[in-house]
Amino acid sequence: MQLAESRRRKWADAKGPGRATRATKEISKSPKSLREYEERAEMAWLESIVTDDGVASASLHVKLGTFARLDVAPFLLLYALLVGVMVQNEVLWNLAEAAGLTNEDDAQKAAVGRSEWELIAWSGAIAAAVISHVMTLLSGVWSVKLRCSLRYRAARDLHEAEAVCIIPVEHRGMPAICELHKDAADDVRENETSAKSKDKTTRAPKTRAQRQRERMEKEEEEEQMRKSQLVSLRSSECWFEFQRKRFELVGSIVDTQTSNLCKFKPLDFPDNLMISSYLNWPGYTEVGDRLAAVRKWSRNEFDIPMPPLRDLFFENATSPFFLFQVLCVALWCLDEYWYYSVFTLAMLVIFELTVCKQRQQNLGMLRGMLHPPYPVWVYRSDHWVRSLSTDLVPGDMCSLVRPTNLYRPMPDGTRQVEDEENILVPCDMLLLRGSCVVNEAMLTGESVPKMKESVLSLAHAKSNLLERPLVVEGSEFSNHLVLGGTRVIQHKMEAIDPLDKEKPAGLIPSPPDGGCLAIVLRTGFYTSQGSLMRTILFSTEHVTVGDKDTFYFILVLLVFAVLASAYVLVEGLKNETQSRWKLFLHCIMIVTSVVPPELPMELSLAVNTSLSRLFRLAIFCTEPYRIPYAGRLNLCCFDKTGTLTSDAYFVKGIAHPSAVQNFSKDTQIAPTLTPAQESDGHAIFVIAGCHQLVRMADKVDGDPMEKAAVRAINWGMTRDSRMINRASSKAKGERVQIRILHHHPFSSTLKRMSAVIAVETLDALKRVKSSKIMVVCKGAPEKMVEFLEEEPAQYKESYQAFMLAGGRVLALACKTLPVTVSETSASLLSRDECESKLTFAGLLVLDCPLKEDTRDAVDQLRNAQHRIVIVTGDNALTACDVARQLELVGDNHEDVLELSPELEWVPIDPRASPPEESVRRFERGHTAAVLVQQEGKHLVVTGAALDAMEAEMGGPSSHGFARALRRLTPHVTVFARVSPRHKEIVLAAMTAAGCRALMCGDGTNDVGALKQADVGVSIINSPEHEDAVKRAREQVADRFTSKEMRKMSAADRIRMEIQAMEAEKQGSSVVQLGDASIASPFTSKSTSIMSTVHIVRQGRCTLVTTIQMYKILALNCLVSAYSMSALYLYGVKQGDTQATIAGLLIAGLFMFISWAEPLETLSRERPVASVFSASVMVSLLGQLVVHFASLFAVLHLTTPFVESGAEEMRPDADFKPNVINSAVFLVGLCMQCNVFGANYHGHPFMQSLWDNKVFHRILLATWSLSVLLTAEVIPGLGETFELVPLPDTNDYRAKLLAILLADTACSWAWEFMARSVLA
Fold this sequence. Notes:
One of its GO terms (cellular component) is endoplasmic reticulum membrane. This protein is of the alpha+beta class.
């Protein structure tokens, strides 16, 4: 009891103070016994052993011996019992015979009866035992939880544990049992501990001075260890690996024995230390330390093994569906359907081999994404050495350089020049010295180069960030981190400053290749690139309508099958002449007909077709299970800048301070703008000096808005990154140039950036005539006002007037530093010192037009009943102007209300002054629905309002805040000035409110929101990719004129399409890691948001296709169950050839039905989201009645033409063609066509039946064949299908044709009615 109580307290403490009470209550709920109390404490302990976002639960286990396993021991006893009973019965019978207890006649009769019934009984008992044993063994293969229960037992403590059972969170891979590795140091430490404990009992107690001296020595040793090592290099005593991720024990095994509490955490990396710790790290100075690092973190590579085809096929062959299919084939073989069985088995094996081969190709494609290692310079043992990128370990000091003329060793000993595009940063690094420009499109979806600065700049500026821990995932240190998978396109190594020599990082000599000095933080699968690889490798790939829907759907079918099987069994047992063996076999076949063998094949066809279509549209999907989610969407959220609007900015002009001060809001006209080229003064210096543009070869690259502003003032950048006035440089007189001494980069949180610049006037001989040092700053107008020494008159009214007109407004400010301040001192100024007491220099007004097809895409989504929401970090007025252009809000500004920081709904137009009685309070979101639904208002919520809601309602984790957001978000049209954190909580609130949300963004700021949405779409703005694909397709299309296309055969057209696909692949460089982004499940390499329309179209098509497959499968199964039950008792059965033809027809129709392409235009009608919707269920019931009535009518029509006592009419007789079998086959063939044709959905989500030419031609040909065979137009044709000539009396053929036509007309009419009325 004390042990359990101790575990309870420790577990509650481990959960934290907020959860301790709940943990105590959960364990202490009135236990019925001491054992139950201890079990609850044990469960609480086990639930908390792994700390990771991707792990839902974990438990420790001990592997059982072979004869102790629950899937072996009970069955050995069962087999022994069966053998014993059999031997005992045989012995007793022989003894009875030997004793003469029965006369000869009675003995003979008893022997005959005994042999028949004993054979049935013992065969059934042995079969039940073997089947139970096999199913138990297979259940351990199918389910990890069952495998744990059968082959393992729960471990009492960590010391005896041998394995860990890991259950990941949903859609994050499959559960697994991981081997628990324990180092040999465990036993040594345990022996040392016991020796110390014994020594304590024998040695004399230490004096106070001795204890103090030992404590000082220990502290000194620990301090020396901290100085010599960046992070502990000692490997954990106990660890396991799950999904290429290693988890280590916190503490030691001995500690867990004393505290009864263990916890595993992911392998620790030096990625969360103080910034000063990295600057004080001298690199690995000892070979032993580096070897220890290799043992702990392993090599910097992505180990993606290629499993052999044999292993993949065995894995698929042991799946439940495949084994069930094989069972069905075996049953058909026992019923002597040889052709059908062989055909079905061959189809299954070929399909599984195709799936395995496709999986190998996918893994090969993924392995092909990886780039080969290349040599890098690494600082080890106080000197620079060459090493491969795969040999890097965390803590290594390495050179980060733009790759040029790198060589890759080939197997034959030669060296091959590596393409610069294929050289990526090998791991996550922190930049210690120097600066570089990188392309992060693979990680963030932004193709705009990013400037990275060293953390020594924080030391120079005496920033408070220097003594704060590094956060890799946050935006605070993003300008100092170079992540794995990105590409360095420019680098610059700065000279070693005397101040840098105070730090060990400043004492390291410059790399021999002139690269930047960086420290390795994370390697392998633990990097940002590795996280993307693990997502692709382990994310769920199955596409279904829904697990619960599927389970209940099959359960309903099973009920029908069991009833039909019971009916056959009861009726069959009444007939004493019927074979009991065939009766039981047939009953089992009826039950197994519930789950058709082609079910997994059809679902795989649907998902593969969807993925291939999206890939051809340059959309890469890492989580295919989300494709049907796109068919259920009712809400689409878009970022504004770079997503809805174009990157092609143009400058409207500059509003100088005089124009701002003279502005009168009564005129309702914005202040006067001066053209950028005609402007002068400090505003020009701010635009030319405050930016993050970089010079790359023969062009300047960077943020499109900054490029447009610099281009508008007619300034340019030289090769040494100086800014010059092009107009003055062409003249022979004086000219002005700007040198950027230091800059503080833009932050989405701060909404501003600043720089320290030197403005120099040069004479005709390019000598510096005069110079001054300035601080220039630009940012959001509402934020910049806080840093102005004096706010100009009409400042707020001016920038709001420009924003109301749809302009993107930036406030410009600057200040001139005293002449006594040197360039070095100015560069060391902190950000707070730079951004204080600034002088207003003007307002820069830009226009950012919508992308070419943004309006078309938004209109299509709106017409398809999707609500459109803008979620942006831009100003509310600018965002509302974009919403007005897209007709999301009206032209009347009075109908647009903004939630103020005071939590009041006020008009967004700042010129409006509503009376106090008309102002509505927020009231925890209750008024939002009233304003939108009853008064027709459009709502705007800003980040400041969200912060005010958090403060008023108890913080972001409070239930009140979450409830208010759930009420608010479904009614808001624009979220403006929101941070990345705000975007994330807004999307989470939308999904919690029951909305099916899509989020589309193009940058780092959208990553959290993209992950929270049901469907996240990341746009990689890559015009080069689109141009390459377009050129490749045009080259292929130019080879053929329209006349030549009409003359082409189908094979030639397919060949041309293949050539176009190959050209597209070449244009997009096949598949690279940049095709997928870690930001979201869907990544589009198109600059247009039309990709969201494509995803919705494909999602609807996939959802409709999957549901109609379920309908068809249900009808086929139920009709088959009826035919095998009610009609079976009349002797109706199929021939082997007939079953094979029906199987071929069904397989072909299912394949072609999955090839239906979605329509180009989205419809207002929504697809049915569930199998159990009213329209689906009514349609199924009605069609079943029609088909059952047709079969009953055929049976009634044909019964007079067969002899009731004929041998072939017995249920257990072999198949022999007769009139009733022939008639039922013809009607069944027609029914198959009607089932597929009537339930083919077509418009408005996918191709119509007539547009799907191959599908409708097969249907028409099959239906016509059934009519021809019924009418016997072609004599002798029926013999091919095992048919007999139909009677030619009493208009039999005409009546049978009438039944075919009636079944066709009624089934199609009923489906049309159900879809029209109830859908």
